[in-house]
Specification:
The complex is a heterotrimer.
Chain A (H helix, E strand, L loop, with lengths): L1 H30 L16 E8 L7 H16 L7 E5 L34 E2 L5 H9 L18 E8 L1 E3 L2 E4 L3 E4 H13 L5 E7 L15 E5 L9 E5 L4 E5 H10 L10 H5 L4 H4 L4 E3 L13 H4 L6 E2 L13
Parallel strand pairs in A: 1-2, 1-4, 2-3, 4-8, 8-9
Antiparallel strand pairs in A: 5-6, 6-7, 9-12, 10-11
Helix pairs in contact in A: 2-5
Chain B lengths: L1 H13 L7 H33 L6 E2 L19 H17 L6 H11 L4 E8 L11 E10 L8 E6 L14 H15 L7 E6 L2 H12 L11 E3 L8 E10 L6 E5 L10 H14 L11 H13 L6 H6 L3 E8 L12 H16 L12 E3 L4 E4 H25 L5 H23 L1 H4 L1 H4 L8 H25 L4 H25 L1 H16 L8 H42 L3 H21 L1
Parallel strand pairs in B: 4-5, 4-7, 7-9
Antiparallel strand pairs in B: 1-11, 2-3, 2-6, 3-5, 8-9, 10-11
Helix pairs in contact in B: 2-11, 2-17, 3-5, 5-10, 7-10, 8-17, 11-16, 11-17, 12-15, 12-16, 12-19, 15-18, 16-17, 16-19, 17-19, 18-19
Chain C lengths: L3 H17 L1 H27 L8 H14 L2 E8 L10 E4 L2 E8 L3 H9 L3 H15 L4 E6 L2 H7 L2 E4 L4 E5 L7 H11 L25 E10 L5 E4 L2 H15 L5 E10 L8 E3 L4 E4 L8 H5 L11 E8 L7 E3 L11 E4 L3 E6 L12 H6 L6 E4 L2 H16 L20 H32 L7 H23 L2 H19 L12 H39 L1
Parallel strand pairs in C: 1-3, 1-4, 4-6, 7-9, 7-12, 8-16, 11-13, 12-15
Antiparallel strand pairs in C: 2-3, 5-6, 10-11, 14-15
Helix pairs in contact in C: 2-15, 3-12, 4-5, 8-11, 12-13, 12-14, 13-14
The chains are: A alpha/beta, B alpha/beta, C alpha/beta.
Chain lengths: 329, 600, 548
Amino acid sequence: MNNCVSHILWKMSLNTVLLAGVITLLVGSGCSGQGTIPKEFTQSNHTNNWAVLVDTSRFWFNYRHVANVLSIYRSVKRLGIPDSQIILMVADDMACNPRNPTPATVFNNANQNIDVYGDDVEVDYRGYEVTVENFVRLLTGRVAAGTPRSKRLLSDERSNILIYMTGHGGDGFLKFQDSEEITNVELADAFEQMWQKKKYNEIFFMVDTCQAASMYEKFYSPNILAVASSLVGEDSLSHHVDSSIGVYIIDRYTYYALEFLETVRPDSSKTMGQFLKVCPKWACISTVGVRRDLFRRDPDKVRITDFFGSVRKIQTTTNVFNITNLVSI
Amino acid sequence: MRASTEEGEYNDKMGILTNPNTDDTNRLVKLLQGKGGAFGLVCYLAGIVWLIFLANADYNLGTYFSENALLPGLVVENFDGAYYAEEFTKELFQLDTDYNGKIPPHEFEAFFHRLGLVETELQNYTITDLISKRKEDEGTGTNVFAVLRAKRAAGTESIVFNAPYFPKNKQISRRNLAGIGIMFALADYFRHQVYWAKDIVFLISEAHLGSLAWVKGHQEIMEDWSSSVFRFDNVHTKAGNIQASVNFIMEATDVCSLQSKFHGINGQLPNLDLVNLLNKFIVLDHEKRPDWPEADVKKLFSFMQMQSTGTPSGSHGFFLKYGIESVTLVGKTSKNCKARNPVSYSDIGRILEATFRSLNNLLERLHQSFFFYLKTTPNRFISIGLYFPPIALILFPIALKAATIWLSKQGLNTTRGLFTLMGLHAHAIFLRWVLNNLNWILLPFLTTAIPGAEIRTNVFASICGGLLLTILSFSIFLHWNVEKEIREAIYCFCLLELATGLYCLALFNPSLVVFIGVVVSPLVTFLFFWDMPEKQRYWAKALLLSIFVGVAYDWLGLDGLIYFVNKYYYESEVYGNFLFELGWIGGGVLILGVFIGGLI
Amino acid sequence: MGDQDPGESSSSANTTEVEEAPSWTRWTASSYAVVMLLLGIPLWWKTTTVQRVPLPYYDMLTLHNQFQNELLIGIPIQFKGFSGVLEGDGYQNVSGYSFKFTYSVMSATEMDLVYKSTDLYHIDRQMCAMESQTHNELLKIYYVGRADLLKEYGQQVILGNCRSIYYIGNKSQIDRKRIDKLLLKLIGATSELQVQDSSNVKDSLQLPLSAGYDILLSLLVPEPETLESTWEIQRGVKDYLDPMVKKLSRFAEFTVRSQVLYYVKLNVMPRLNPRTGIYEIPNEQLPLVINPVESKLSSFVSQNPALNFLTYTAPCDKYPLQILDDTGSGLVTNAFLVPQWGGIFIYNAPCPQGQKNESLASQESEGNEWNAKHEVSMEQVMAVVLNQFRSLIGLSDKTKEDGVLDFRGSTLRDWEVDLLVRRRLRSLLFTSANTLQSLGNLLDQITNIVVTEKVGWEVEKSVQLLKEAYEYASKGNLADGQAYALEAFKSSEIAFHHPTNLAQLYFPDDQKYAIYIPLFLPVGIPVLLSLRIIFAAMKKGSNKVKAD
């Protein structure tokens, strides 16, 4: 009898211990830090992040394009991509434009909460340097000898690159600086060259112009996910006017995209799938187009920080040398 | 028969690549001779009806902005200096009384300095009396202007704000003192803003001619055909390249409606964007949207009337002449305007501020929108693409007639005809030269011709004399040696030149051509009866000519004619309004040629 | 007669005129046609085709696969003093390397060295001295049959500091298993055999390929007004870093620079541990440290990748500062590194007591120096830097390892440098071949790209050099192999990245027609039509002749 009872007690305590162990394991795995990725996200292959942000239009009445690109720049920087891995191309200087009633600032909202220009913006290609040729050279790596590091895209085959372009566009082309255009075929060829030279792991391509979807129609290289603010035949509209500055201050798609990005932190678990749905038709008026057939992973299982953020992997140093043992030869 | 085969073979040899068929030409000529007149008449009437229909809102276009950079109305206006405007106006009225109607320029300059605009300059100009050319009859004036430099821009471009000042002895009772007062208030407001990308020139020109002097001085156009009568100082303070100019006239201190004026010299019009800009702010800021009728033939007619005279409706005409887009904002007053609700200075100031903010956004000269248009109501316009076909139809019978004559008369004696035409032109030039040098050629003869008459009457008399001279000399010349072929040649070439001239003129001043065409087109094509017996034809034309002259005389009267002639003489001398003269006098000479061809 | 004659004469006049008149016109029209068709069109075609110099496409497209399947870098090893030989063909292939075994006896000097020295370190030192005199690059395994060493180390194969390996045992037969383990160590693999291509994420964290690298040593002084740190960096570099860098000169050129940055703080928010009184930086904050500080480090004009070693002296109000590792306990070394970027070391300089809270003014009025000065210990810094440097270039960072002799006299072993050179050689060969293959594929796919003579020349050169480098690598001749491979790499990069390789402007087909039709149609149609008429006339003429 005693043996039975003790046996039962023994079994119960064993079960309790086992249960406790299982619970601890589950809780522990759930509460671990950044190192473990929950099962619902697919493992990413990349080790570093780059961003190429391009504003192609100049003149004061295109203020909103500069505000667009600077807002994305701020978000991307906030989420961790350093300036040395961001190539920012801005075709005109809005902050120092004589028509700007608040000099040295660029705002993306009529309530003028955030000055997206700030005092630590690093523009790599400015003014007339933003040309189709320079852009294609930047992407394919065929820059002229003597180009400084900050103007080169030094990505490797483990880099995830975010490419954002804004400006005026049409069916099959994007207008640069009011005098030239880049066609979707040229862009697709540039990406193919990048793929051949193993310059990217995955690319996320965002474009906010009129008839933007035509820009990603001709892509044929793998691992590209693309989103456009409007389909062919539609115009992308601006969001609102800042009546104290007197210009349209931001475009609709970028406005809602930013609204979403403001809620993302470096350790956020929001997905790219959520980002792709960020501007429904009632908000954007134009239809947002997505191209996902070239992308190997399911965007609903990809973290948004895979493209917008950059967290460095660190290794703690566990040993140091005993210097006294070293005698120089 | 043989002749035609020869011609046919000759044509065959002309080239391997073309092969005309002479049979077709004959058929065409027969068609033209038979049905050409009726067809021409139909075209003429269709053109007139079409033009009238264009005034209807269903058949013309609504106004829109073509220049993306303007961004009109996006920025909120913050002008709050209406109080200062009123104070300045009161001060100016006081000065006006003190100086007995002619405020000296240094007072204006002092005003500018008070406002903080230190870069000022005075410019003098003189104009001699065209008829007497006596020194005692010279008029003088002085312009005052100040330049507000753009603080953060390179100053390569500028805009002009012109509020002309009319001193008392210029016979204009409205002196625009309120306009200058509002301009001072705006100058003060503008000086405190940081967002100017262009220099702003605040100009107080003396009378309308002052603007002409200023523009010519600033653009350094020192020597042209008017230098003998119109002289001015060099302008030393230069602003940047002038992109646009806005003129502002207040007819009284209390105005009840605002109007934009934009007719330039010779029918030139400013870029439609500028006109629409000003109109937008007038409607936006002040007027409740008025009830504009759907069809505005009356408005179109008054527009065309204004444009056809070629006289500018304000100082903007002088700016336009030198390639600077310009409009005038006029505050119009009416009886008991003070009792009703006058337009507040605040509203007027904001309209001007909004206009200048929009112009500030410009990157290039205004070039995107139309330069040739007809305007009915402020929100609709007729572009050149819409109005040119009806005008072409109205003038078409002239060209058709010329073609008919050319094609049907083989062996037209072209050389004699051409020489005659050149002779006609020589006479026109001679006439012009006579007018130019009136005083020392004709004056001695004519002051005694009609004793006691004024000099101006003599002008008219001399012109009539000249015309008569022309006709007589021609008649004498042509009395001998007149062949049917020569007459036909003159007729044909005159028609051709008339048609060409009128078509070309229609590009610049469509209104003038409409009025001329409506009268002349039937006159020279339908009223020329080849088939009448000679004597009857002679008397028919003599009758028509006398009716024509008689009607003109009765309608205008001698004084009217004198005024007419004097005005246009003056205008063409001083600032080149010559299209009217060209249109009527040139056309008239050609018509004369036509008649000569038929009279003798 | 009068009536008839004119008719007849006119008709004969007709025929003669029709025949004679067009002869000169016929010649003109045909000359136009000749110029246009025979001269104009070929000229236009030639000037609008994309200029392409012929390239060795076959080689470009197949070299990479060839390397992948067949490249085996030779590593000659000599067994000295053993009695037997290993079975097999005298070579062993291990994941891309081919060890070639040779056997010989030990010479008298070598015997002396091995058996007469005091301990293993002594043996090794002398062996190193001998090697440096003879500049011998061969790996040698010595049989060390000494009982005392056997007692000390057990049966082990121990790698020395140079190219000597000591087989400690009691039998002079070669034990296969021990040799296998040794071979893996020699090529830097872990215990499992792993294929050394870049599909492994860990491998991709090695240094990127470049001819040279920059090393930047920075001292960050956050509050110089309270604590001003200085360091004798020149001495430190000369004593500790330079020897290492010199040894690595076979591998790559390293340029060393240093700087001191004031008023730069690290983006950390340390928490005070009340128990220990230490300010602790949690592990999660570490990755966010680098981005803000990186912009303050200068970026040179050089194109070489840079390795940054930062030494951060803790500010006085956060003293002492310690990093926590991922288990939450304090990290003794207080340092961490970021692969491909560099390392950070947090140095706790002793803050003078009582000066933490005094204001500057009061300090100045006392006539004292208003801040404390501290000389950073170069030994501490270098200890960390050297270790982190080893890790960054791809060597193990363990100071004590099984089967490897401890560091004496240097922080880099010759065979480790060999290992790096071999890895790099492999990398160079593969990358160059890959670049050429990419270029070949690209030129196939995008027909708009111009290929100039310079590019053609570089490609030829690269292909040639690659083939030769392959030969040298197979034989194990590292120096020549690396030199040729480096040149081939440079050439292939120049060829691929040549600025003239830009695709010409793309014109959609309808735009091409829109440009050419207005040019050629107005000229072409009349000429062709007149040709037709000429032919018709010629036929008629020949018919007429026939009829006559």
